[in-house]
Every structure is written in C-alpha cells, then in structure tokens.
Write a structure and sequence with these properties.
heterodimer; A: 359 residues; alpha/beta; nine-stranded mixed β-sheet; two-stranded antiparallel sheet; 13 helices; 18% strand; globular; B: 282 residues; mainly alpha; 2 domains; 78% helix
Chain lengths: 359, 282
C-alpha cells in the first residue's frame, strides 16, 4: 500500500515538474538571446577549454557581451555540416592541417585581416597568416624522454640519436597514421636530411619509410591520441617519444619525471577558420581579433604553455619554451610542418602506411 | 467474445515503433551516405573499380583477415569462460546469484575507454601484473601482455563476456531440470548427462551467444586501437581513419558495405541454424 502511495506521489511530482518547465521554457530559452549574443565555436574541449575560458572567453564576454559556446565536432562532422548546408558553428578552432582540408572541400571563407582593431596583423608570426585561416597559438612536435632512463645530459639530442636504438636502447613511441600524420619528417632528418623546410619537403616517402623501418624494432606502439602518448611515457611503457609539446608540458607541470628535447622540433599551429554558412561572421572576426591581441595572448599563453602567435607577446612566453641561446621561442629554431604537402599527399601516405605496418 | 477482442488488436502492430525508428535512424541515413558518396564517382563501372581497388589493397585484406580471426578467438574465449558462469547463474538463487550477476553487469556502468585504460595499467610493461610476477621471481623479463594480439584478446573478451553470459543464462533458465534429474534417475553419470542432455539443450544459447559476440566483435574499434600493436588493425579502425583523417569517404563507404555484408551473412546463418533446429523439433 505504502508502495502505491509512493508511486502516485512521484508521478504527481513528475507531472507538476513537467508542467512547470513547459510553462517556463520560453522564458529560459529566449532570455539569453536578448541579453547577449552567443557564438558557437568548434573547440578541442577538455583542459584546453578550461584554460581558454578563464583567459579568453570570459574577458571577451565582459568586453563585448558575446558569449563563446564551445561545441565539440570532428572534421568529418564539420564536413558533413558543410555538405548538408547546415553549418552549426560560426567559428572553427582546430589544427591548421584540418582547416586546410576543410578549405579544400570549399567549406571556409577567406580570412579578413582588414577589420582587426586590437591586433596588428604585422605583429603576427608570418607562418600563421594564411588566406583561409589564422593561427591562435604555436606548439611543436618534440622529443620527450623519461628522466629515469638516462643520466642527466645523456639523453638523445637529435632524431638521429632517437633512431640509434643501439646507442640509446629502450622502447619508444611515435605518432600513428591515425593521429593525422606519421613523423616522416623526423625519419628523414634521422637519415641525414637537414632539418629545414626546403630540404625536407617535398617528402621522399620511400626513403622516409625505409628510415622508419630502422627504428621500428624499438617501437612499442604508435600513438593515435595525445593522451596515449603522455600516458605511455609517464607509465614508462616507453622511455622516448615524439609528441606534442603542449601535452608534454602539462605532464611535466603535474610532476611527471619527463623531459623535453626541443632540438630539431617540428612547428605545429592551432588555428581559426570561419566556415561558409557562419551566422555571425562579424562576432567571429571580433573574437579572433580579441584573442590574438598582445595582452590576451600573453595571459593565455602563460597559463597554457604554448607559444604566442603575436610577436609582441614573446616576452611573456614561459621560460621553458625559450631557446636560451636566442631568448626566442624554441619554435623559431624548428622547421614548420608543411600542411600543403600533407593535404596533397595524405591519402597516398595512408596507403603506404597500411602496407608498411604489416611488415 | 474474447476472440473478437483479440482480433481487433494485432500484436504485430507493436513492432511498428521499433521498425519506424530503425528505418528513420539507420536505414535512411545509411542509404543517404552510400548514395551521396557513390554519386561523387563517375558511373557504375567507376564505383565497381573503386570497390575492387579498395577491397584488394593489402592493408585492407589483412585488416579483414585480422578482424575475423580476432573475432573468432574472442567468441571462443567468451564461450569457454562464459559457459560455466552462466551455468552457475542458472542453478543458483539468492545472494550467490545476485552477487555474480552484479559483478557481470556493473562494468556496464563504466565507459569502455576507462575500462580499457584500466587494463593498460594492469597489463603494461611496468604494470601491476608484470611487477607482481617479477617481484615473485616467476619471470625474469616483463611479459608482453599489451600492445599486441594478446592485449586485444584480453580487452575484447572482457568487454564482450556479459553478452555471452546473459544470452547463455536466458537459454539455461529454460532447460527443464526434471530432464537432468530423469537422466540421473536412469543411472547416467554427470558427464554423460551433461554431454547427452544438458549441453544439447543449451546449444541454442551457444549459437545465439556466439553470433552476438562475433557480430559485435567485428565492429570493434576502441579496444584494439588502444591495446593492440601496430599490425593489429581491425576494419573499423580503417573506416574511422578514412572518415576522419584522409576524408576519403568513398573508401570508408566501401569498407562499411563489406562490414555490413559480413554481418548480414551471419544473420542469415543465424536464422538458418535456428530454423533447422525448430524443424527437427528441438
């Protein structure tokens, strides 16, 4: 009997709650639209968004009343949105290689630098300024090592030494094709090619894979997500890795016994692109302008441990990201991943990779 | 009369919502995807050429073989491990039954990714299992339990075991225990009784469970990607890569058709097997 009463009570409660919410819904849903503007932005999510919310999204909202709404979406989903003519985000924040793929599918609008008010386009690192996209921070593919595996100063210092599995024994990991692109560049550098863009590209695919075969016996696993790369290194599943400097920096900050080797780093760019079908291009450009401006870049990059795109913010770069010889960000000494080459050749490399992993 | 009351409501109508949902959320998007992708190719012969090219590429042929091999192994392992568990469940009541059932169902409330990472902590080179064995002096060097086929088999068997156990349990619950008692009464040994009475009666569950596990296994993606080695590539991983990395949706569609065809063939076999058994009066 008491059970019956309980059921009836809860049912009534549910009905009441449903009724109330139905009546209230129009107010809750419509209120923000007149209080302020919402800008849905595709972002990588996670800790990335936590840091960016504090140092970029919240100050932007205070300054303009525009609220950034992070939306998770993979490149395939964005492409599907474009093809179906129903673009659900007004701005895309992702890797520069991904944005180039979208641009080549006709999904992006040209970047309009002329409307910038807070950022002087002349101050931006030239490598991040493209007609279809503009970088918002710079990071790199670097060598990471477990400090317990090598005496201080005895860790490998070049990709040739990383590839030398006799002189520097121990399991290693490199990025998988599934991460976007395997490290064919480092394979060539290890094989004697000078670490500069004009010598590395166009990539000699056969030579690169032959070089990859030499380091293969020491590869425990190729990583496909950034989380796996740091986890394997921190757990000492591997003692050497090629991985993203941002991920490695976060792990070191949290106290993992890891080190970063910036020599011969490959520069990568996180970028903005405005999709065709964006419903608020003005707000998107205003946000880009805001987040690339010197003060915002300085505060954000100090917290996120990446390298600013605005040269005026270089003095605020975290000290561990500076080359002690020049006092400039380490990425100034690296070579840049050629996203145009990858866009043109990714399918071909994928086919070779699929065959090569079976060997 | 109750007869007319029954006639006024056809129980077949109950299937309509499920059927509508399947058409709306599965068949139509799938057809839309295939048509959209293949429309970008020029003509039927171009599509056929792409089919032959994609499905004869060594990487993909190997992935199809690996997929079937791993799925078959996982099916066999879940059957060997799951059968005694299901038997225990079917022949116990009270807290014993509740405890075992709880242990089998509870992992379902945790995400596959979290469970897979937990396995990595246990199985790694410096993982719990290797550390324990090394400190006990059982082994001299860490066993390669992770980032190879062994890792994939352990991870997938663990994730898929409940499907096998619950399917077997459902069948075993339906077995009339009087038949077993009658066999004992007529002087049959426990082994003979199991072989000639219990096992044949549970065979329907064995076939159902095996097909469910196999069909789920051939589409697996997260576990082999995280726990396998470089060459342990399953077809779902290649589909994901074609969709997300190379944006080669034609290849993705072709591999998906192949995977769907494999699944449908298994369903046909499943129906044949169950029908034949019914015809024989089992």
């Amino acid at each position: 009997m008491s059970g019956d009463t309980k059921v009836r009570l809860s049912r009534r409660q549910v009905t009441t709650a449903l009724g109330t919410s139905l009546i209230a819904a129009p107010f809750i849903i419509t209120r923000p639209t007149w209080a302020n503007v919402q800008l849905p932005v595709r972002t990588p999510g996670g800790s990335f968004d936590e840091v960016k919310k504090e140092h970029v999204y919240d100050p932007f909202r205070k300054a303009t009343g525009i609220e950034i709404v992070p939306v998770p979406a993979t490149v395939a989903k964005l492409l599907a949105m474009h093809k179906s003519g129903n673009m659900e985000v007004d701005l895309i924040d992702t890797g520069d290689d991904t944005l180039l793929q979208l641009d080549q599918a006709g999904a992006l609008m040209p970047m309009d630098y002329s409307v910038f008010k807070m950022t002087n386009p002349e101050d931006l690192d030239p490598i991040v300024k493209r007609k279809e996209q503009v970088g918002n921070f710079v990071y790199a593919m670097v060598m990471g090592y477990h400090t317990a595996a090598y005496a201080k100063g005895k860790e490998p210092k070049s990709w040739a030494e990383f590839w030398d599995i006799k002189a520097f024994p121990g399991p290693r990991t490199l990025p998988d094709m599934a991460s976007g692109s395997p490290n064919l560049e480092f394979a060539l550098v290890a094989d004697g090619v000078a670490p500069t863009n004009d010598k590395i590209y166009p990539l000699d695919i056969d030579r690169a894979f032959n070089s990859m075969s030499r380091v293969r016996p020491a590869i425990t696993k190729f990583w496909d997500t950034g989380a796996l790369s740091t986890q394997m290194l921190a757990d000492k599943e591997v003692v050497l890795a090629s991985l993203w400097s941002t991920r490695l920096g976060v792990a070191i900050d949290k106290g993992a016994p890891l080190g970063a080797q910036w020599n011969q780093n490959m520069v990568l760019v996180q970028s903005y692109g405005i999709p065709k079908g964006s419903k608020n291009v003005d707000a998107a450009l205003k946000f880009i302008d805001f987040s690339l401006s010197p003060d915002i870049q300085s505060a954000w990059m100090r917290a996120y441990k990446a390298i600013p795109v605005n040269k005026k913010s270089y003095p605020a770069t975290a000290p561990e990201l500076l080359d002690p010889k020049t006092n400039l960000p380490w990425t100034q000494a690296g070579f840049r991943r050629d996203i145009d080459w990858w866009a043109a050749n990714r399918t071909k490399v994928n086919a070779v990779w699929q065959k090569w992993v079976l060997r | 009369m109750t007869r007319t009351a029954h006639q006024s409501f056809d129980p077949g109508l109950l299937i309509i919502p499920a059927f509508a949902l399947l058409i709306l959320l599965f068949v139509i998007p799938l057809a839309w995807f295939f048509v959209g992708v293949f429309a970008e190719e020029e003509g039927v012969s171009a599509v056929m050429h792409r089919f032959i090219d994609v499905l004869s590429a060594p990487g993909i042929v190997n992935a199809l073989i690996t997929t079937n091999w791993i799925s078959a192994m996982v099916t066999a392992l879940t059957l060997v491990i799951g059968y005694p568990i299901a038997y225990y469940l079917a022949n116990n009541t009270g807290w014993r039954f509740a405890l075992v059932l709880f242990c089998i169902i509870v992992p379902y409330f945790t995400s596959v990714i979290v469970r897979t990472y937990s396995w990595m902590v246990l199985l790694g080179r410096n993982g719990t299992i290797n550390q324990a064995l090394l400190s006990l002096g059982v082994i001299d060097a860490p066993l390669p339990l992770l980032y190879n086929k062994m890792g994939v088999l352990i991870g997938m068997t663990y994730v898929l075991l409940p499907y096998m156990v619950l399917t077997l349990y459902a069948t075993m619950r339906g077995i009339d225990s009087n038949l077993v008692r009658a066999a004992y009464g007529l002087g049959a040994s426990p082994v003979y009784t199991f072989r000639k009475v219990y096992f044949p009666l549970s065979l329907h569950g064995v076939v159902s469970g095996s097909l469910i596990v196999f069909i789920l296994a051939i589409g697996f993606f997260i576990t082999p990607a995280l726990m396998g080695g470089p060459s342990d590539v399953m077809i779902a991983m290649l589909i994901e890569r074609a969709v997300e990395i190379t944006l080669d949706w034609t290849s993705a569609a072709i591999m998906s058709v192949a995977l769907l065809a494999m699944t449908l063939v298994l369903y046909v076999i499943y129906y044949r097997v169950t029908d034949v058994r019914r015809m024989m009066g089992a």
